[in-house]
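Same chain as my last thread, 643 residues:
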Amino acid sequence: MFPTFGWHSYLGYDDTDERPEIDRALLRRVWEYGKPYRLLLLGTLVTVLAISGLSVIPAVLTRGMIDDAIPSGDIGLLSLLGLGMVAVPILSAVIGVLQRWWSSRAGEGIIFDLRRQLYRHLQSMSLRFFTNTRTGELISRVNSDVVGAQQAITGTFITIVSNLASVVVTAAVMLQADWRLTGLALLAMPLFTLPARRVAKALRRITNAQMEKNAAMSSVLQETFNVSGALLVKLFGREQQEARRYSGEAAAVRDLGVRRALVGRWFFAFLGLVSAVGSAAVFWVGGRLVIDGQLETGTVVMFAILLSQLYGPLSALTNSRVELATSLVSFERVFEVLDLRSELAAGHIDLPAIRGALEFDHVYFRYQTTEPTGLEAVRRNSWRGRSTDEGFVPQQVSSREWAIEDASFRIEPGQLVALVGPSGAGKTTISYLIPRLYDVNGGAIRIDGHNVVDLTFETLARGIGVVTQEAYLFHDTIAANLRYAKEGATLAEIEAASRAANIHDFVASLPERYETVVGERGYRLSGGERQRIAIARVILKNPAVLILDEATSHLDSRSEALIQDALERLMVGRTSVVIAHRLSTILAADTILVLDQGRIVESGQHLELLAKGGLYAELFETQFRRLADLRLDPGDLSGVLAP
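reply #2:
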């Protein structure tokens, strides 16, 4: 048994670790990605075998020089053997280049397929998945873990086959030359292979821990290096605290790297000792056989050369098994994410256009879930076998069970519905449910009589436009951000939408006009400018259903007026659901829905609701008196009626 030297306890390694070894199911799944590239992989295998065969020829040529050419004084044979020793490495190098070309094409192709599938799968997840997962962890899964899987394809698998072929060919040549020395050399083989299982388990455990910590480190970087995070850190003077947080994660990665290095050092020190003892034994026995006249000197020299080609690949082969175990951790982590089931099943009805009839039929919805979501579900349900909910945090903490409870209403095409209510009443949740960012827990939401779960995501995306309080823009040009709504939109269409959104004059005043780069999340623009670009983007999309959070309380009066004018144009002829903050919008609404604690407690028009003397009247009267005392325009209800 391989001596542990205490390193496994240093790792916290437990012999009772129940995590499974590399199994055939995992390898078969990896091979499914290799099937499209099987000809390239077959060609790579052929080149590996060819290089392995060529590797033993120099030792055989050396034996011929010592035992035949030199004793007989045959200059021609000596020259021929010398040319052969030059030709072999040249031929091997040419084949090696071909091998690298084929293996890299296959490996990079497999990883491209895997990375593309992983990204598309993550894009299909619900909003709940992203609100429960740190962005840095997702980036680590898509980048770092896939790169680790790439190493398994282009490096580890090829190395295993190459070293295995080299050991077999070398052992065959040695056996043909002298069975006694070959048997003596092979006696050391169990000492190479037996430790591999324990080392593989230890390195597998460390590698997974390293990936987890790398993901945590990436999350810190993502949170503090984006514009919003960097601004928050600076405003609160938390540079030192964030530096300590990052240092803590980096220190964990460092410590795991040291542990991994120690495992490898002890392991290969032992293998080196075994190689030295085996070589010494072969030399001693071979020397005695030469002295006794039972063996030629050239044969012993050939064995000396071949021993390095036997023990080297044998050591590397053992290492390849360890590397395979650790490399497959990357595949396992990628497959864990691919195996996550999206809570949003794809619908099957594709409508070319929707009219805009919208209905809530006794809808119930809650954010809390009984099972972990996001990557916590991966860690809970993976082969690592966690059985606790440690670290799981629900998407939203609330004192009530339902975010939306028994909500029913109907909106006809072209109507305007205003949602009002105190903070936390459920207005924003309704705006999330209509485009199916979440699925309801009970009841149904219908568009043009079709349950939204039956409609394709493409239908919903085409027919529903959303303008939120915080307009998100990509780090790209204004034109590119606008074309996100309509790929291939002409400059004339972009300008028309921008004029309708009251942003064209501003853009036209910029030196680069619509080719101006807006910066990270659009932070080179003011809040009002970002909002008007977002409105122009929805105008360009031209949806039948509009969901709008019209909050403008954080903007100056001029920007607010421009945005309100743009919104009024945007709502014309569309089914509009507006989280209302202004009395003008409320007065224009066909129906006002008053929400409280997730329930629709009142519905009707302005005067009708005032006459009831309920929550709407209370909110209105309280706000009206406050505005009157402050001598403000009573048309603005942004204070109390905030989402």
